[in-house]
Amino acid sequence: MMEVKKDTILVASIKRRKKQTNKEGKTIMSLSDAVAKSFSVSHSGIFGVDEKSMLEILVKWQPEHLSTFRNETSSIFLKDERFPFEKCEEILLKFLKREFKRFKDAVVQWTMHPWERDARMARKALKRGRQAYGLLIELACTRSSDELLGARRAYQSLYSESIEEDVASQVDGIERQLLVALVSSYRYDGSKTNDRAIKLDTQKLEKSISIGDKKQLIKDEEIVRILTTRSKIHLMAVIKCYQETFNKNIIEDLDEESSLKDTIYCLCDPPQYFSKILDSATKANANKNEKEALTRVIVTRANVDMKDIAEEYDRQYKTPLAQKIEDVALGNYKDFLVTLVQRALPKGSD
């Protein structure tokens, strides 16, 4: 809350200075517009900075302009109590560091080998703990069997440990069994299915869900076995059979069990899952983990299923994904992400 409040004060301070009419005031006013556009997140959830606007203005500034700006911007610069200088607010420094870094992170992730990229993401998720377990589910369930195996190999090479042992030793809670099984999985990727197996799995899932403790379903052996070993095409058939046989949606039956819901979405309907992740990332009140997903999803899915994700996002939220990024991002970061989205769409699409 403090971060939003400070950035909102910054915008208010900039608007107040628009009343300045002298030459120096107009110069400050020009930079103020750039600051408002490039630095402030306010309540709109801005990502990145407008490097071009900042460059055009900042290089023209003389020392006296900088001095005047610091003195006129009390919401950013504070008078030192002991010595004659203005010191920058720590919150602005942290904000600038984070927003300048977004473009760099996007470029690094884009150029990195997918195995290494996923391995490093998994490592980061484990360090962050329970709040990032969803990322482990995403990595384990939206990659092919060979891609997940590659990430596991890269993890061993980078950290001299296996991702399986790290998940088993570092995840402390009821999610452990599911997460270990997911990252260890090597699913059949073919198109063949067995109707009898589909019906049996459907019945076992319904039984476990109907008689089990809703808060403990993530530990149910049958549910974990089915979700972590069966092929994706098999699971999609099971979900369909569940709906047709019992006239109810398995997602709704899972009630509050978000980890199992995320697992099913990632395995059976990645475009819908990623659309929801992107929507959460671009909300004004998104947290750090949610905001990072904007870069992650666009970069990692650009050459996979971005067309399907963009179409699903448009269908769900009635806004083209590229336009949404235009609305919430700035500068090189915005241009990079928009380009990755647009290159996956048919020519003529927004």
UniProtKB/TrEMBL annotation:
Entry keyword annotation includes Repeat: yes
GO molecular function: calcium ion binding; calcium-dependent phospholipid binding
Keywords, comma-separated and alphabetical: Annexin, Calcium, Calcium/phospholipid-binding, Metal-binding, Repeat
Listed PROSITE patterns: ANNEXIN_2
Keyword Repeat: yes
InterPro entries for this protein: Annexin (IPR001464), Annexin_repeat (IPR018502), Annexin_sf (IPR037104)
GO biological process, one term: response to stress
This protein's name: Annexin D4
Organism: Vitis vinifera (Grape)
Gene: ANN4_3
